Amino acid sequence: MMDRPATSPATGFMLNGVAVQAAPRPGERLSETLRGRMLSTDVKIGCNAGDCGICTVLVDGDPVCACLMPAHRVQGRAVETPAGLARVDPWARRLARSFQAEGAAQCGICIPGMIVSAVALLRADPRPDEPRVMDALGGVLCRCTGYRKIVDAVMRAHLHEDHGGPLAEGDGHTGAAIERLDGAAKVMATERFGDDVAPPDALAMRVIRSPHDHAAFEFGDLEGFVAVHPGIETVLTARDIPGENSVGVIPGFLDQPVLAETVARFRGEAVAALIGTADALRDAVLPVIWTPRAAVTTPRAAMAPDAPQLHPDRPGNVMCRGYVSCGDAEAALARADVVVEGRFSTACVEHAYLEPEAGYARAVGDRIELRNSTQAPGMDREMIARVTGLPLDRVRVQPTAVGGGFGSKLDVTIEPLLALAVQKTGKTVRGVFERTESMQSTSKRHPSDITMRIGAKADGRLCGFVFDGTFNTGAYSSWGPTVATRAPIHASGPYAVADYTARSVGVFTNGPNAGAFRGFGVPQTAIAQEALFDTLADRLGHDRLAFRILNALENGVPTVTGQVFSQGVGIRRCLTALQPAWDRLRAQTRDFNAAHDRVKRGVGVASCWYGCGNTALSNPSTFRAGIRADGRVVLHQGAMDIGQGANTVIAQIFARALGVPVSTIELVGPDTDVTPDAGKTSASRQTFISGNAARIAGETLRRRVLARMNAGPDTRLRFGDGAVHGSEGALAHRIALDDLPAGALGYVFEAVATYDPPTTPLDENGQGAAYAQFGYAAQLAMVEVDLALATTRVLHVTAAHDVGHAINPLLVEGQVHGGVAQGLGMALMEEYVPHRTENLHDYLIPTIGDVPPIDVLLIEEPDAHGPYGAKGLGEHALIPTAPAILNAIHDACGARVTQTPATPARLRAALAGGADG
Amino acid sequence: MGYHAPYRLNDALTVLAGGGPVAVVAGGTDHYPALGDAPEPAVVLDLTRIEGLRGITRAADGGWRIGATTTWTDIAVADLPPAFAGLQQAARMIGGVQIQNAGTIGGNLCNASPAADGVPPLLALDARVTLAGPDGTRDVPLAGFVTGARQTARRPGELVTQIALPAPPNDLRGAFCKLGARRYLVISIAMVAACIARDAHGRITDARVAVGACSAVAQRLTALEQALIGQHAGAPEMPAHAFDGLAPIDDIRADAAYRRAAVAEACGRAIRAAGSA
Ligand SMILES: Cc1cc2nc3c(=O)[nH]c(=O)nc-3n(C[C@H](O)[C@H](O)[C@H](O)COP(=O)(O)OP(=O)(O)OC[C@H]3O[C@@H](n4cnc5c(N)ncnc54)[C@H](O)[C@@H]3O)c2cc1C
Ligand code: FES
Ligand code: FES
Fold it and tell me: For residue A8, what pLDDT band results from cuts at 50, 70 and 90?
């Protein structure tokens, strides 16, 4: 055979059935060629290292990671990408249908990789069993779904026909398990995320970051550097910032520079950004002289008297403290019959969304427009205005789809850099973080060090509770103050505690910022509290579940902040809903353990509560809706959908309020120019707060239309063909819409509504109405511990969640599954350590084979403030899982792991240290 | 300069001899992660089109030859004697399907990670590594090929062409035990490969046990192997000194104490599994 070394630059291959030519650089990754040269942005990049699998394509029918394959290797071969398959492949189309029907896609960034892998499987085996599905999809990570619905969707794909759009049945009002309204793009691989929207000729950005935990730095000759690097447009440093070089989220705590000025306070901190062509950026080495300084990486070191101070205005490296007190905790402990005490520490946890920070910005007239992947477009806009010095109305933020956020995409990261680059160059600039820089530089879950003392009377009633928590907040504040505030309010758990003292402190260290992450400090406190509840129950000889039911909070009983809810407290119902599973699984494990010596099973229970919305602060959402002259109903849906389902849930609420089928509503997404600010997607506030704003907007619109028609409140409305039709019993109404005057946005009827939950400020003892509503949950986990290897397998989770009213049961289940998976990761494997676990190879999150079957029990204890009774849910899904698993491990083998994650090495040490009974 | 994907081994060796740095790429599953976001090297030598380098064949003497660019998937699905079961189990536990479809056995050996899953099963099968270079080919035992963490006896200008395995005794059975903190996509905390043969009474007549990720280079536990002879495969007793040669370290996956304790257990399981297969 003729030897044809492929030294020629061009390579020809079949791309989705079409012969194409490309000219990659030698050794260029296939993923880059497909995305950059063939514009196949359906191929996603999450890590560029084989660890996430979302770049999976078929090469001659076999799934491979496009990021690990030299592009030239596909010369003469057939490459199939997710969108190509979705267009023509019968299996891909069935899978798309099946993924939608099962609710298997949340943010959707992993779905292309999942579906491509599943196509290869189903071509060989149309009816695979669960183990085969797991083996076939085991190379693709998902951070949102908990995988179970993905497994179901693949196993049931053969039952479906071709993809044919959503199956909208009925009105799709609240309570209906309808498919995601924005799901088709996700399952057909046409969704556009942060790195999928920039024009091809945009300049690129590379951020220069500190390799040290703490270091002073100086630049060499930057002008000379630019001069000898054709293609590099400019180097952005702190000196280029016309406005304030400080960002953050909590008033009084805006302390993080966009670009460090002379000192970098954590590894990964940005000090400069190179702007230029991608080719020019690749090889350039910016001259930076680093002078490492002593670093403090733990709160203990940071609070030592002679410790280096991170911020001159924060003595002792104390960011802030939190305090809640009611009754007399010490006196109660003194009169308690049993007092237990424990110290617990939890690791730094990375959000590990699979889409790294990405977006692009451009100048339009005298304005800067940004498209990005965010949870908080309104705050992004404010921060950009702050650093650029532009007035707010000269900044527009138009988010793309978001490939997962979980709290971290509430902070600005890439956004101010892109805006500053545009401001300086006048050109369009794109950016995307590498996986490692995303992990190094963005916020984390606070590592915590917690001590608790809890007492109880012999009858099982709690009697005295003291909590002290130290939270390592890293180099800058981010959402640290929120965690310091939330932890003492929530550390009691959803239990009646009359005598309570809780103190928290957030401490600066030379580590990554700890900020917002599903639960804001509450998952950490729940681990300690639920562990000690088991000890208390055991000491008293009470059943562990009964002990919790006995102490569960109730309507009319004050919380630890003295707030009394006359309705809506659903924790007791959650706990009692677990009783059948508790009895059954406890009996099963007893039998199992009697028959097995080397492996032991155990069952653990834990509960949680979580206040929805900001703590004791105003946090409004505003919604706009309108009716066009052609009869289309438009909802400006400003609540960022980061995979959790706001686009669907909010539309369902609005549709019910207006009284039309959800399928008739057209959504306009978040865009700071036309869609009012719905606040941030955090604190489980969107269903509750934005849901209410959307409900009021719908009700207002309905009232206006009915008034115009002179029709009664029970009239059925139908919009279309340039008219509104109303039927009220035998009466028929009609308004012709093209006769009506239209407003600036083209609406003949329009409503704008705002909702802000009622809260009151907390006093110096943390007393007050902190939240208008809480959501509640209790979960039960069954595990199997391999005694000799100290490995843990979670076998089953039962999750009872009080959501008030399940707006969309399918999406509620999805949220719970995803939260359980993240809680499982937190319990067993996740630990972010700078220098050591800065990629998805060494930082482990659960794979498809690690998440057990999950039973979701929906409890609907309506809340008077929630839209149609609904409560928030996002954070609750995660909080009870880790404590339930840790309690189950203890139940199985008697060893109590007090430092998470409970890795095999830590569990072995706990086992060797002697079971504590 | 450029990308070379020769069909003939000699052409590949010529590229390699061309002077200047050459990035040799087989599956790329170690190459690209190590590269990170650094610029690609100027000269890339892709081995995957070289004829005769991929696949598993039976030699005239009954031994087996696994070509260097044979993928883990190729190994997992091949029809091989039961002694190779541990190697095949290891293949199915590497990364995920995507990694198994691209990653090669030659790359696994040349990358020489202390946690390379391919090494213990091959050690247990007495593998030898064949290298081709400008001066012809040579053959070294695997134990001598991997010389340290990320170090091999491969000389500049050489390529690994195949792994040669002597014909295993008919009654030899293999097994593999991998310890990791999650189900898929996981680098081993420790792993053990065992090959065991038994007599009619279930007593061990031949034992090979190799351990990885507990020393810079995976190793055979010869003292353990000797102690096993004559024992019952179902309940082997393992003298503590049998593990003296291991030198586990603390890393992010586990501490040394865990590895030391777990490896004995894993050995027992691999031996029992091989002994009952
Ligand atoms: C997500 C992920 C999971 C992984 N999981 C595992 C795992 O579970 N267990 C495990 O052991 N490994 C694992 N690996 C590592 C890797 O996949 C394996 O080591 C694989 O066998 C490497 O083969 P390759 O062909 O891809 O090597 P390449 O990346 O192509 O090459 C690796 C090195 O060897 C050199 N080389 C390759 N072939 C030759 C040759 N014939 N002659 C001379 N030099 C050569 C290359 O120059 C390079 O330096 C994983 C990797 C990833 C990305
Ligand atoms: S981008 Fe290729 S595996 Fe993550
Ligand atoms: S849906 Fe899988 S990562 Fe978001």
Answer: low
- Select from B97, B108, B179, B255 the residue whose CB has the most chain A CBs within 10 Å, as the one to mutate to test that interface: B97
Q: Tokens standing for A426?
A: 């006048």
Read off the pLDDT of residues A527-583 as tens digits, 9 standing for 90 and up.
Answer: 999 999 999 999 999 999 999 999 999 999 999 999 999 999 999 999 999 999 999
Which two three-digit tokens encode residue A238? 């702190």
B98 closest CB neighbour out of A6, A64, A850: A64
Q: Please tell me the predicted confidence (pLDDT) of residue A1.
A: 34
Residue A87 CA, chain-centre distance (Å), reads: 30
Nearest chain B residue to A29 by CA distance is B32
How many CB pairs below 8 A link A and B?
Answer: 178
- How is residue A738 written in tokens? 């093209």
CB atoms under 10 Å from CB of A535, counted, come to 20
CB of A847 less than 8 A from some CB of B:
yes
The pLDDT of residue A917 is above 50: no
Task: Indicate if the pLDDT at residue A2 is higher than 50.
Answer: no
Contacts 24+ apart (CB under 8 A), B6-11: B6/A3, B6/A5, B6/B45, B6/B49, B6/B50, B7/A1, B7/A3, B7/A4, B7/B49, B7/B50, B7/B51, B8/A3, B8/B50, B8/B51, B9/B50, B9/B51, B9/B52, B9/B53, B9/B132, B9/B159, B9/B161, B11/A3, B11/A5
d(C-alpha A352, C-alpha B103), whole Å = 25
Q: Ligand 3 mean position to A533 CA, how many Å?
A: 34
Q: Rounded to an integer, what is the distance from CA A763 to the centroid of its chain?
A: 31
User: Is B105 in contact with B163 (CB distance < 8 Å)?
Assistant: yes
In the predicted structure, residue A914 carries a pLDDT above the cut 70 = no
If we measure between CA atoms, which residue out of A545, A473, A568 comes closest to residue A771?
A568
> CA A689 from chain center: how many Å?
18
pLDDT at B215 over 70: yes
Q: Rounded to the nearest whole angstrom, what is the distance from the C-alpha of residue B98 to the centroid of ligand 2? A: 10
0.95 surpassed by pTM: yes
| Per-residue confidence (pLDDT) for residue A680, from 0 to 100 | 82
Q: For A779-795, what is the mean pLDDT?
A: 98
Q: How many CB atoms lie within 10 A of CB A621?
A: 28
Contact call for residues A362 and A533 (beta carbons, < 8 A): no
Pick from B33, B37, B261: which is nearest to A908 by CB?
B261
Nearest Cα residue in chain B from A838: B252
Q: Among the atoms of ligand 1, which is closest to the Cα of residue B93?
A: 8
In chain A, what's the furthest Cα-to-Cα distance? 91
What's the pLDDT tens digit per position in B69-121?
Answer: 999 999 999 999 999 999 999 999 999 999 999 999 999 999 999 999 999 99
Find the CB nearest A72 among B5, B15, B98: B5
